[in-house]
Amino acid sequence: MIEVRGIRQGFLGIASLDIPPGSTAVIGKNGSGKTTLLKVLAGITRPESGTVSVDGRSPGATDVGWLNEYPDRNMLFGRVSDEIASPLRFSGVPCDEVRERVSALSDRLGITPLLSRNTRDLSGGEKVLAALATALITDPSVLVMDEVDSHLDERSTRLFMTLPASQAPRYRIWCTQDMDLAARSDHVLLLDRGRVTGFGTPLTIFPDLSGDCLYPFSWRCRDERTLL
């Protein structure tokens, strides 16, 4: 369990929150505090007060994979294969094992043709997939992603949704503006002006948003068909 207690960071304030294993979509209108919360959960930002624990450990003591909204800003190497391999090399993993793990993960992601390319020449979606591979190469227990789906086409979005489960990070947390994507998650966390106003399954959260812009478009179409 990810346990959040007494968090204060800027205008973000959360007294108590428990996030179970699985996929959790963080939703809310612009300025609701989504990115701030994700950075706190990932251990990138230390809150002004309060604590976060992941299965009893601090985020800093946990292997966390992080993708921000613009993943190319964090890329360090010119060649994609070197970028994906970098977390393993920084950890002192033997070269042969690094090559095997990069090859195996890239094959599962379907990005093997990208390995020899320069990171600067990738499309936005390709950069996200390369960054996702870099985040997953260490087999993290937590994967945190900040609106990366906004750069992906339909095929890559399907891959984005299914791959993390197959790679088995225990916790997969991301924020998105795509409510249909959020509706496919295990849990939905609703933020409003820095406060948690809802947490539960999509079936418990979205019905209360039926008149809101946060209501999934596919659900709205379904409701209209039901009324015909």
**CATH superfamily name of the largest domain?**
P-loop containing nucleotide triphosphate hydrolases
CATH fold-level assignment of the largest domain: Rossmann fold
Q: What ranges have pLDDT less than 50 throughout 5 or more consecutive residues? A: none
- Assigned CATH architecture of the largest domain: 3-Layer(aba) Sandwich
The CATH class label of the largest domain is: Alpha Beta
Helix-strand string: EEEHEEHHHEHEHEEHH
Tell me what you see in this structure.
With 228 residues, the protein is an alpha/beta fold. The protein folds into two domains: 1-63 and 142-228, Rossmann fold (3-Layer(aba) Sandwich); 71-139, no CATH class. Helix content is 36%, strand content 24%. The strands form two sheets. The protein has a six-stranded mixed beta sheet with strand order 5-6-7-3-8-9, with helices on both faces. Strands 2-1-4 form a three-stranded antiparallel beta sheet, with helices on one face. A hairpin with a 2-residue loop joins strand 8 (187-192) and strand 9. The relative contact order is 0.18.
In a few lines, what is going on in this structure?
This protein has eight helices and nine strands. The protein has helices spanning 34-42, 80-90, 95-109, 124-136, 154-167, 179-182, 202-205, 217-227; strands at residues 2-9, 12-19, 22-27, 49-54, 64-67, 142-146, 171-175, 187-192, 195-200.
